[in-house]
Amino acid sequence: MSNSDCRGLKIDRGIPSLLTEVADTARELEAQGYDGCFTGEINHDPFLPLTIAAEHTTRIQLGTSIAVAFARSPMTTAQLGWDLQTFSGGRFILGLGTQIQPHIEKRFSMPWSHPARRMREYIEALHAIWGCWRDGTKLRFEGEFYTHKIMTPMFTPEPSDLPHPKVFLAAVGELMTEVCGEVADGLLAHAFTTRRYLDEVTLAALQRGLDRSGRDRGEVELSCPVFIVTGADEQEMAAASVATRKQLAFYGSTPAYRKVLDLHGWGELHTELHRLSLAGEWDTMGTLIDDEVLAAFAVVAPLAELAGALQRRCAGVIDRVLPGFPAAVSPQTVNAVLRELRESPQLRSNV
């Protein structure tokens, strides 16, 4: 593995965005030994829950996966990141994503253009702003999309000796992955990603970005959610399989993710899934995900073999994993699997 802290694979978990549930969940995840807990920007703000989580934990890392960058100016995001980094004692990870053009323009009423170039500049602007606040340098950022040239003492936060928040970037396409290698601290891969896509497309594009910035692979963490199909018996395995096939069919119908299917020669599957999605045939779509496709996107194994199967999916590539366990698997069983995964000698030897 490429983890610079020699701790091996990091295991993360999502936390609810409902504020009344955050404190208990964050404390529980920290007690269970998770390395990080992440919120997403879906139907709630992703930053507010992390403030509560920071107050009720001391060790676990706290991150957004993702916050929509283009819905906010870099200055707004810089303030949020600075305050959460300070309040958490340096445990905050700012995970950013672009969303898609219709949502940026028609839901957020914000500008959209050249997403990869804009994102590179967005992250550069964040670092310029944070540098101004921490080091007292004059703020003079002038880019193609963003300009930040005014910062008076009244609007400057209190000084901090903490490092800047780590910035993780969601990327599927090669251009955005290269940007990640150039300017980000971590890559947030999409759940609709196969190991082959990581090996042949993601890592190659990431390395091109790293080469341009003169950095090593160990300076960027690769984080990836992983679908899990498991169960204590055939009935539980079958139920988990049906649910996962439906999820994969939904993602496979989305044009932005066709490139993953194309790599495997499954481009026509996207065509048919997209057609069925327009007709609202969601249950039918799931039946098109055969066992080969399922195994490419999900770790499929009975509980007794799950830790080893998940280890093989991650080893040598994924630095942080967010396993998506089926709802039927008990918390005690999840903890046992994750404990076995953490203690795996293969993971330790890959560090």
UniProtKB/TrEMBL annotation:
Domain of life from the UniProt record: Bacteria
Residue ranges that the Swiss-Prot or TrEMBL entry lists as coiled coil: none
CDD domains xref list: Tetrahydromethanopterin_reductase (cd01097)
A Pfam family: Bac_luciferase
Annotated Luciferase-like domain residues: 19-312
Protein name per UniProt: LLM class F420-dependent oxidoreductase
Source organism (scientific name): [Mycobacterium] fortunisiensis
